[in-house]
């Protein structure tokens, strides 16, 4: 097969990757269409809608307010607890569905619908228009549509993004620095007293972020937690007192709730009991009329289940009933029956629930168009399981209607309510269970497309695949085991162990492989064993995964106690990179002819290089220091106040931009000067231009490292020193191309997990997402998030290309050594030639006799011989498409698995990022740039 | 797996090591098959206590394993001094009775066997311990666990190797580089290491069983690998060389 055919196959294989990802995603995360417009009260034979007990609402969200923070004995919410005991407040645990992150939860609370998993992605691309609720029916829209409707909002700016142009007065706070426990909340609280005196609004929304920040930073048992709860309780008291005392707040409903909870590590996103159990308290003096109070504090029935457990989506219809507006169109919540006793007339109670049920029935009917919801059809005696879920709901709806019909105008709540509640609850269950939403044909098509991609990349690799070598077997084992692993939830959660395990074996294999060729004098210091030892350090850097989350690791047990050591190592990392950059700049400054001599860079160029690069390195370091002082103050503890004081005054956005700008200009400068030198040399020496080097590629790589370090959290920066050492030992191993590919693949994955990532949504690190970004720029933020989380893989993908370039360089040196045999010892040359032959035996069909000749003469015929980079990409494409296929197959086969939304779907999102952003963007896109920068 | 083509510079100036054959007597031939059964039975018998209380149980099981291994090598295998010459000689020709049977047994077998045990404990265990840590064993905690795990692997893999190959540096380089032809001793050692490595597989599963704790699965893998490797090395792959191509 010629090189061209292989190239076409490989190109198609790669084009199919994004296609497969998209097709599968549309089937797996179906975009739920919503009904546009605002709901209106329907005309019912039972008369006008019942009068509402409240006309204003104060909606106070405390981010990550887990149920036990309010209801347990250790809670700081003493005033709230006293209200619950006295009957002025009604407590619930509001079940939040996964993904338990703020934006989908706010959507659920306000629309009453159950947001799809797609909202997780949109949560990160926040200004996406499809994610705003401006055109959806929410209780905010309903309240605003009321006469004199006026909404105000203070707190998390997620609300401002979700509801553009909705609030008359607003002050958004963003959770820019998680280390900020006080300022974010004070920015909300300072507005409260004056707004409580104003009477022009009918809904005030507050969203406090401080408690969530404490959780993220130090977990639920942090010493800051109780003071924060007491602070929140104080605000509850102020508001409640105002409701009791101010005349214009007399009919105000006060709701305190969490949008989600947190797990024992203080994180959220998944569906652990702690994460899905936020508190929900309705407060008003009027509530004393319907309840005598509940015991508080109390103990949960199970995990975090305090009091009655309701769904978070139930908040929307309940507010609708209590404030007297129609239930939002897309709502799937059910009016909380406890509050029905506000209406003394049974007819009113039934009517309220009937309106709720009718609204839900509209959605159910649209979802199951084939089921018969009409009143006229036969009522079946029981509506149980043999029916399809649509028919079952239709049956329950008909039952409810029939009972209402029999009752006529005399609506007895005891008879009429149960079937209505029954219908609503089952509709809620059915509609929120996602199993019915998969588009199986798309899932199959997506998997099939990635299967085709696997086959095509295999075809592109055919000459190499047909030869069985131990390295090839190792690669095949990685593929097969990784594919199998995707079907086991624990292995997906603990994926890092697979890569650590495989990479350890791989380095040991390299040790054996090299030992068989020649015994290394001091075998304990063998480069492969040093790689193994360094890997062992990186794998303990960050404890990741689910099973041992929070177990001691280097970052937490070493650096948190000794920030000085950390900063020394960080400083060393920056110095190392800066010195390397200085050399590149110096080389680029020197004239081309000087470069011919060994170390021929003149002093003046060296000084020039150092002078240009030092400010860049210093600035990058300063940025990291001042950023960390704000983002993770515990890591700069012990530094002198003067430095910190000075550093804190710096504009982060400005410095970050300067750093990025400096890196960009340096890249351009290196490329331009390299091009100039190349041209100059050609002019001087005519044909003789073989003695080129990898300067440009290495220069670009070092600039990239500086960028990646900027996108890495401070505690992980010393890892780059280790990476550099690993790179050093890798170059000493003199690996053949296929082994370079495998090493780069393995190190990409191990470094990903070593930097603290995992396959859980909650481990996505957003701290470096806004470096140098002032406003909202989806593209820039998305790119920075990707670069920050995939920094390790990007580093190692670049190393892969660099090593391939080095390998070629060695070969060309050999070639010149033939003309000048003194330069290289003959046995070294002989061994290299041997190695080269073996490597190229992999590359070519064995029956091609000219190929060995081509190699020995060193004349590469690009038409016939695929370049090393081509094979590198082909192997990586094979891995990427195969792993995508495995993830897709696992998600399809296990779509009814309990963990589908917590383990497998997040894995799919990660697989998307690995396949599209990493493989296409970095391995191929950036890799091509690096390969182009290498002289061959 | 054909004969090697990878080796660019085959070790020269010495005869290439040939496979180790079992001593040519009925006891040896029978006991070599009973031995893995005994070793596995020992482990199966001690498995529950090992899971319940790893450190003391692994320690006293280690003593029993040492006895079994010493018995195995002295009954079945040619000791290093005798092995190097008779390995060239055909097995059937080895019928030279020594000065006194008991004396030669003590000198020729028991002492080398105990020396192997000693070396395996003193040298093999720390080296394997370091390898375990490099492969991810806990460093700051579970030290006795890791150490005992290394000792078990060492006794399983290295006593027979030391007994038949001695302490010749060149020979050990060949062993480490996997250049020796496969036989039941080498196969058992390879199997032990592969088994120990594969033993890490079930640890991350969320079954929360006691036996998933460090280092039970590793030791289990090593024992199973020993038996499998010994059988495969002695019967299936005997005489073959490991090829990396």
UniProtKB/TrEMBL annotation, chain A:
Transmembrane intervals: 7-31, 443-461, 473-492, 498-513, 520-538, 558-582, 603-623, 643-672, 773-796, 873-896, 908-933
GPI ethanolamine phosphate transferase 2 C-terminal domain sequence ranges: 435-933
Pathway participation: Glycolipid biosynthesis; glycosylphosphatidylinositol-anchor biosynthesis
Entry keyword annotation includes Chaperone: no
Keyword line: Endoplasmic reticulum, Glycoprotein, GPI-anchor biosynthesis, Membrane, Transferase, Transmembrane, Transmembrane helix
Protein location: Endoplasmic reticulum membrane
GO BP: GPI anchor biosynthetic process
GO molecular function: CP2 mannose-ethanolamine phosphotransferase activity
Membrane topology note: Multi-pass membrane protein
Gene Ontology terms: cellular component: endoplasmic reticulum membrane
Major site of localization recorded for this protein: endoplasmic reticulum
PANTHER family hit by this protein: GPI ETHANOLAMINE PHOSPHATE TRANSFERASE 2, PHOSPHATIDYLINOSITOL GLYCAN-RELATED
Reported function: Ethanolamine phosphate transferase involved in glycosylphosphatidylinositol-anchor biosynthesis. Transfers ethanolamine phosphate to the GPI second mannose.
Record family assignment: Belongs to the PIGG/PIGN/PIGO family. PIGG subfamily.
Name under which the protein is recorded: GPI ethanolamine phosphate transferase 2
Organism lineage string: Eukaryota, Fungi, Dikarya, Ascomycota, Pezizomycotina
From TrEMBL, chain B:
Any single GO CC term annotated in Swiss-Prot or TrEMBL for this entry: endoplasmic reticulum membrane
UniProt key word RNA-binding: no
A Pfam family reported for this protein in Swiss-Prot or TrEMBL: PIG-F
InterPro entries, A to Z: GPI_biosynthesis_protein_Pig-F
Superkingdom per UniProt: Eukaryota
Coiled-coil blocks: none
Subcellular location(s) per record: Endoplasmic reticulum membrane
Annotated TM spans: 110-137, 143-163, 175-198, 218-237
Location, primary (coarse class): endoplasmic reticulum
Membrane topology: Multi-pass membrane protein
One Gene Ontology biological process: GPI anchor biosynthetic process
Pathway the protein contributes to: Glycolipid biosynthesis; glycosylphosphatidylinositol-anchor biosynthesis
Keyword field: Endoplasmic reticulum, GPI-anchor biosynthesis, Membrane, Transmembrane, Transmembrane helix
Protein name, per record: Glycosylphosphatidylinositol anchor biosynthesis protein 11
Record organism: Glonium stellatum
